[in-house]
Design brief:
About 35% of the residues lie in helices and about 20% in strands. With about 425 residues, the protein is an alpha+beta fold. α12 links the parallel β12 and β13. The structure holds adenosine monophosphate (AMP). Its EC number is 6.1.1.21.
Amino acid sequence: MSINIPRGTQDILPGTVEKWQHIEKIATEICRNYQYKEIRTPIFEHTELFQRGVGDTTDIVQKEMYTFTDRGDRSLTLRPEGTAAVVRSFVENKMFGDPNQPVKLYYNGPMFRYERPQSGRYRQFVQFGVEAIGSEDPAIDAEVMALVMDIYKTAGLQKVELVLNSLGDKDSRVAYRNALIEHFQPRIGEFCEDCQSRLEKNPMRILDCKKDREHELMKSAPSILDYLNEYSRTYFEKVQSYLTALGIDFTIDPTLVRGLDYYNHTAFEVMSRADGFGAITTLCGGGRYNGLVSQMGGPDVPGIGFAFSMERFLAAMEAEGIAWEDDNRLDCYVVSLGEEAKDYTVKLVHDLRTAGMKAERDYQNRKMKAQFKAADRLQARFVAILGEDELKENKINIKDMETGEQQEIALDQFVETLRKKMEEK
Ligand code: AMP
């Protein structure tokens, strides 16, 4: 009996993995420009980290975590998101003491959520995210949004929309929370069980409910923007004015509340507006989390970040029909004829590779014609042909596969000659 891949996971095979590498390269280079440095945290953490850091009332913590007890009877969880662990590490490694503030970090790795798999939703998916911890300057909010839009734009995506909201500070949220409770309470019986339990714990999360999205009270719910106090309103205006100065378009959606408990002030998402993109259009989600670091036992320093998944990024690129040059074409395929020549190419191919060229030879005992076919499949720019006679005379033939031009050269000049020819390409 064969064993299949677990539900909600996927193999990223050669042919597709190059697309991942392409995006990762763009994202990491852009992070470099913006001065974000990579951090790698464990795949599993203490379960409590996510209960505290993501929030007990969230779907993630209540329904979606891969939690297990290890042999030492500890409750551990495969990370469902990246922020909680980055903040844990920030506190644990006392990064708040670093003279370079804010601390600007990025991560890239698999996350795990027990969700109902569908197009664009996996149980294991890869998130690329950034966190800027230690500053409450609205310019840093604008910066992280600029960074993610820069990544999408550099990858060629055009049909992406930045959607923005403010969740205000604590005071604004208290006022808004009361308004929401007042709004929903009389008819809360008409809502799903989750919403009923959210009413007291975290009524903003009702606005995020997928089941009750169409309920008339959702549409008539009060807007957070009417409850922002002076500081929060000014902060939000500043963020918007910076984005405008950077030439970044955005729309404001007062119903955008985001799923995680720890957000305040800026909340944003990037949506794909490409035709043919699946039902789930959110490419990226992010926001400000000023209380999180202190909640995790650190000093009271603010933070902001975002995460996008590689899977949805790729889906958006596909929906927009973006192709790119994969530069994995072979530089040289070495065809050999006869046992001695075959043996000799082991070293020859190795020499090409160590000189920095992409080189390949036959390992299947193929006839010459089949070796040429293999070279074609690999789109070799050059084919080198080494027969018994050439070997005796210390010569080798090089054929330029684009022009058809052939040249016989001294064997000891081969690597250097090919290197020069490649430079001219
Ligand atoms: P979140 O951590 O839920 O705010 O999600 C941030 C981003 O991660 C989303 O905008 C998606 O791009 C991506 N994402 C979240 N959950 C999944 C999933 N199950 N499968 C694929 N991508 C996901």
